[in-house]
Specification:
The protein contains 36 helices and 29 strands. The chain has 980 residues and is α/β, with parallel strands linked by helices. The two termini are 47 Å apart.
Length: 980
């Protein structure tokens, strides 16, 4: 192997140092990796230096110049601790931690001695590519001295094992030291060879984790076997359970029992260095070894291994997803680079590689039956798979090569890569109104769900209370009840804090209580753990449950966005001690969250004073609500459809939830009504119980359609808030409605407004009656202020503001969704108005209302979450994308849920002229016929399978495997991958 020489100025070449403590023999891919990278480093002029194990065998050192450096490989235990590491429970864990620390100490001592003999000029690179928890702490300790030894040095640490290897206190401390060195300007780079691993490890550090190619150069591929010869399926690498060895043996036995048996098939199974349980399975299998199976018990050098790859027709890699979900496989990559079709496990790094290039079949995790079916299918369609594997080989070699590794190491560090888009989200919400869409918090979380839910497969929401599980589209909501001890403990806290708060501060202890109440509840903690484990990302609303949710997210390495709607501690005014305790919980939560969002600059500044940085994502507004058309004038909708009593005259309104400052503001509205008898004052929301006085009405909670109508009927919106933090969603919502807004400075907190231009700001409540009278007497000014306020609110539309969520989660844009949302909102408003009018018996009003877009009255009979099948899907085939809605609809019609799978091709008849009852009866008769057809089809399928089992000449039914058959393509073109 040629080494880097000297340049034309006779200056020494920079060194490319490869650190591999496990380079000792030809077992594994250590030699192949190190040799190929060293050769590629010499080509552009680097001087390759390979630091390997002290006991490197002569066969390796005869081919590759290796400097013996390390006394143990990456897996070797420290001799002083080895006998204690197998102790049970905490004793064994502490012994392993101490052993890892001692191994890291010895590793750095070995590395430092070896580096002292290496000449490192500026531009030298050190690539340490076998880093585990036994090595990463050593780099945290020693790299400061390494960089002090000379300028222009780069260190690249390749972390290629599960993120759990690096998720411990010692590695966390190492990450912090490496981050500090990088902040000082030193060239420290973290890398992995798997995009999935890079995403997971990236959650443990603020450093970017890049993805390096995997250099495994294979020889030229062999041609397909001649027709009539046996097809050879190979399992390569030493025999380990996580490599699917058990499943391979079981699949061979399954194939033996089929009518075709193993005819036309043969299997080469590398079985060297088996684990004890795997050895037992091999011995039992060898006792009745089929002649078509060859067990290879000896290890292979590089030449023998490549010969085995080339002699195979198909490579089997049914690796366990629990181990290989993010880890790479050299066997699979060398198979693809040798133009061999593969059988691999779905939803893991291997399936990601097959989506890019190569050909093969993906099977479910640990499923020997699916593996047997995939083997048979591969045999039946081998020519097509082999042709496509050959066509994709150049793309594999271009992407994964030693030259590509050197080029990336020599280039500047790439920016932090975006994470993989999540498919499933978990949302934790501390109130019981997540689907009510009423009140500031509920409105915000609903707009957030409207933004992200269409971009993922499923959203699971855990709210408080005892409501039954509910569903809206792909958003599934469940409630977490409280134990019988909950109210008792709450009373204890109230009694304990009474001396601090007194009567004036009664209730302010709840903000601390909400942070504490769930800590002793095991059922809640278990449900949080389950939801976090099943999700790809977590959205935490408020800091109340942060200690539980963030701990689960750390254990499962899931990203978290914590949205803090207010500075909660600012609402605790009667006790400095209680205020500080509440603030401590808030700050601790925001500091621990990977991503922290606050709703205003003032909130961000308040938390920054506590040492916590956050991103401002202001309270937004849904502009579609202000654009939605009402079928009737707003006063008629409110009074005749919903039966709400409104005072005469121009309306001044206030909307508020059951929140302390809102309740105080509602009381101010009542006082203002007495001072302005010519104006009607209306309060809506839970901030005040329903009441009717001369020119004052409190409506209580009202439907969404009534709320929109109330904004349309208002002449002015009042926001008489005396306190509050964050930003007021009700203020932005009122401005978006185009109505002039009069408020205190607190009402406009977090908003850049100009009084008299886009709103009216008046801190002195005694001056409000005159302000209101003058504004209503000047409609031109009121119209101008309302239009300017709406212009300001447009920049706060949730589709713009909440891009912070989609960017952080790396979700794609949802183009063209606003028009569909507006149409859906208008249809929903019409249904609400019709339903309210029908419940009040307002038949005259019902006759004036339009029938709605092609749905008629039938849809009014069903809630939004479970629309009627015949009414919603009349004249349309049922597509898999609406299968969930179909299942809900069938449940509403009392039909058997198990038959929903047969509805995919169902075309309902035109039933527009039938009443609802007759429509459902006709639908049930139609589905009964469909069920009978399904039964007949199932009987025919079973009969066909029985005939097939008795006649090998008949074609086999397609199995559950997913085929990856990329067609030949030009570089850069998108390629569809047909799936069976």
């Amino acid at each position: 192997m040629a080494h880097g020489a000297y340049n034309h100025r006779n200056m020494p070449s920079p060194s490319f140092i490869i650190v591999d403590p496990s380079l000792k023999d030809f077992i594994g891919h250590h030699f192949a990796y190190d040799n190929s990278v060293a050769e590629a480093a010499a080509a552009p002029g680097y001087k390759p230096v390979v630091l390997g194990h002290c006991d490197v065998v002569p066969e390796v050192s005869g081919v590759l110049e290796v400097t013996p450096a390390f006394r143990r490989d990456i897996w070797g235990r420290h001799p002083r601790i080895a006998r204690f590491c197998d102790l049970p429970a905490k004793a064994g864990a502490r012994a392993r931690d101490l052993g890892n620390w001692l191994c890291a100490r010895d590793f750095w001592a070995d590395l430092r001695r070896a580096l002292a003999r290496v000449e490192m000029v500026p531009g030298s690179i050190m690539l340490a590519h076998m880093i585990t928890m036994k090595h990463l702490p050593a780099f945290g300790w020693g790299l400061g001295r390494f960089f002090a030894g000379g300028p222009g040095r780069t260190v690249i640490l390749l972390l290629r094992y599960q993120a759990a290897f690096y998720d411990n206190p010692a590695c966390a401390q190492a990450f912090r030291r490496l981050e500090a060195l990088a902040a000082q300007g030193h060239a420290i780079r973290l890398a992995s060879d798997s995009g999935r691993l890079a995403d997971q490890i990236g959650l443990l550090t603020t450093l970017a984790v890049e993805v390096l190619p995997i250099p495994h150069p294979p020889p030229e591929p062999t041609h397909a076997p001649p027709r009539g010869s046996r097809l050879r399926f190979a399992s390569l690498g030493n025999a380990r359970d996580e490599k699917g060895y058990f499943e391979i043996l079981q699949a061979i036995r399954i194939l033996q029992m089929e009518p075709l048996g193993l005819d036309g098939l043969e299997f080469w199974l590398q079985s060297n260095h088996p684990q004890p349980d795997v050895k037992e399975a091999i011995d039992a299998f060898a006792a009745d070894l089929p002649p078509e199976v060859t067990l290879i018990h000896q290890g292979m050098d590089e030449a023998a291994y490549h010969a085995a790859v080339q002699a195979a027709d198909v490579v089997m890699a049914p690796y366990w997803r629990s181990i290989y979900e993010a880890r790479t496989s050299g066997v699979l990559l060398e198979a693809l680079a040798s133009a061999k079709p593969v059988i691999a496990t779905e939803d893991c790094w291997m399936s990601d590689e097959l989506a890019l290039h190569g050909a093969g079949i993906l099977i479910p995790d640990r499923d020997p039956l699916a593996l047997a079916e995939a083997i048979r299918r591969m045999a039946d369609e081998y020519a097509a798979f082999a042709a496509r594997a050959v066509a994709d080989r150049p793309a594999v070699l271009a992407r994964h090569s030693a030259a590509a590794v050197i080029a990336q190491c020599a280039a500047p560090a790439p920016p932090r890569r975006p994470g993989r888009p999540p498919r499933r989200l978990a949302v934790f919400y501390p109130w019981d109104d997540v689907l009510a869409n009423r009140g500031g918090a509920s409105l915000r979380v609903n707009m957030m769900l409207n933004m992200v839910a269409p971009l993922v497969e499923r959203v699971d929401v855990l709210q408080q209370g005892h409501a039954a599980p509910a569903r809206r589209g792909n958003v599934f909501v469940e409630s977490a009840g409280r134990s019988r001890w909950h109210d008792r403990l709450r009373r204890v806290l109230r009694l304990a804090t009474w001396p601090l708060l007194g009567r004036a501060g009664f209730g302010q202890e709840l903000l601390l209580w909400y942070h504490l109440e769930r800590l002793p509840m095991r059922r809640f903690r278990r449900r949080v753990e389950e939801m976090v484990a099943a999700s790809d990302a977590v959205l935490l609303e408020y800091s109340f449950h942060a200690s539980i949710v963030l701990a689960a997210a750390r254990r499962h390495r899931k990203p978290v966005i914590l949205s803090q709607y207010d500075v909660l501690s600012h609402q605790v005014s009667s006790s400095g001690l209680l205020r500080r305790l509440t603030l401590a919980f808030e700050v601790a939560a925001l500091r621990a969250a990977p991503h922290a969002f606050t709703v205003s600059e003032s909130d961000r500044a308040a938390f920054l004073a506590g040492g916590v940085e956050s991103r401002v994502v202001p309270n937004p507004v849904d502009l579609a609500r202000s654009q939605a058309a009402l079928p009737l004038p707003p006063r008629r909708v409110l009074e005749e459809a919903f039966g709400l009593s409104l005072p005469p005259g121009p309306l001044a309104i206030f909307i508020g939830s059951r929140f302390g400052p809102n309740q105080v503001a509602a009381a101010h509205m009542r006082k203002l009504a007495r001072l302005c008898p010519s104006v009607g004052f209306v309060v809506a929301g839970a901030c005040m119980d329903p009441v009717q006085e001369r020119n004052f009405s409190a409506l209580g909670m009202i439907d969404e359609a009534a709320l929109i109508a109330l904004y349309r009927a208002a002449a002015v919106v009042l926001v008489p808030l005396e306190s509050g933090s964050g930003s007021s969603l009700k203020t932005v919502e009122a401005m978006a409605a185009g109505v002039p807004v009069l408020g205190t400075p607190v009402a406009f907190r977090g908003l850049e407004v100009e009084s008299g231009v886009d709103c009216l700001v008046e801190p002195d409540m005694m001056l409000w009656p005159g302000r209101i009278t003058r504004l209503l007497a000047n409609p031109v000014q009121a119209s101008q202020i309302g239009a300017a306020g709406r212009q300001l609110a447009q920049a706060l539309d949730y589709r713009v503001v909440f891009e912070a969520y989609t960017e952080t989660l790396n979700l794609p844009r949802d183009e063209g969704g606003a028009a569909a949302e507006l149409a859906g909102l208008e249809a929903s408003l019409l249904r609400q108005i019709r339903s309210a009018a029908r419940s009040r018996g307002a038949t005259a009003l019902l006759e004036e209302l339009p029938a709605g877009p092609a749905h008629g009255d039938a849809e009014d009979e069903a809630p939004d979450e479970a629309p009627g099948v015949a009414s919603r899907y009349r004249g349309q085939p049922l597509h898999p994308a609406v299968q969930g809605a179909v299942i809900d609809a069938l449940a509403q019609s009392r039909l058997h849920l198990a038959m929903a799978q047969h509805m995919m091709a169902f075309q309902p008849p035109d039933l527009s002229g039938l009443p609802v009852a007759e429509e459902l009866e006709a639908l049930e008769r139609e589905i009964e016929g469909l069920i009978e057809q399904a039964r007949e089809g199932r009987a025919a399928l079973l009969a066909r399978l029985e005939r097939q089992a008795g006649d090998p000449a008949l074609p086999r039914a397609a199995g559950p495997a997913c085929a990856i058959l990329p067609a030949p393509h030009a570089t850069g073109e998108a390629r569809p991958y047909p799936q069976a």
